[in-house]
Amino acid sequence: MPPRKKSTGSRASSVIDETARPDVIVDFRFERGLLYIALINLSDAPAYRVSTRFAKPLRGLGGDCVVSTLPMFRRVEFLAPRKRIETLLDSSHAYFRRREPTVIKALVSFRDARGKARRHEIVHDLKIYKDISYVVNREPAISPYLSPSLAAVDAAPATAKEDPTYGRSKRQSLLQFQLPR
Q: What region, left, alpha or beta, does residue 135 occupy, with left being phi > 0 and alpha being psi -120 to 50 degrees?
């Protein structure tokens, strides 16, 4: 059921404005040698029936996962205002070593509160992240929220030669459990 129009008065802030337009994008984030991909509603209006089509398959997590086919890109029925859904794509080292596509084209389709279809194409060039330097934390993270075995994952090696498991999906998937410091 579509939301009501914004009314004047004290309840105005709790009711969604049907005239506002949602603006949904796919974006990438580079942090400490890791690449993340996100679906983001930049606007103050909700988006409905959000889907993203990629020009080429986007593989991550050591090449074991076709990230572009995740449910977060196939169909999100409701994407709240200012909402961000993000997942780990891969370590930059592993992604570029596999020679994955660097120019990523994504067609984002969604509807506004009135049901009007909207869509736009977004083009990213991940080569901008290829030669960025970053510091690898070699000391285990000490956190009351992590078990000692998960805390040790933060001490990732600088190169694949130092650790043969570097960039593999099992190691990368553990990174999702780390909490910011």
A: beta
Interatomic CA distance for residues 177 and 12, integer angstroms: 38
Q: What does the alpha-carbon distance between residue 114 and residue 21 come to, in Å, rounded to a whole number?
A: 10
DSSP string, 26-45: EEEEEETTEEEEEEEE-SSS
Residue type, 170: K
| CA 165 from centre of chain | 24
Domain locations in the chain? 22-127, 135-181
pLDDT in tens, 5-53: 444 444 444 455 556 899 999 999 999 999 999 999 999 999 999 999 9
How much is the CA Rg of the chain, to the nearest whole Å? 19
- The fold of 22-127 is Immunoglobulin-like (2.60.40)
Exposed (0-12), middle (13-18) or buried (19+): which is 158, by Cβ within 10 Å? middle
Report the predicted TM-score, pTM, of the whole model to 2 decimal places.
0.67
Neighbour-count burial of 11, counting CB atoms closer than 10 A to its CB (0-12 exposed, 13-18 middle, 19+ buried): exposed
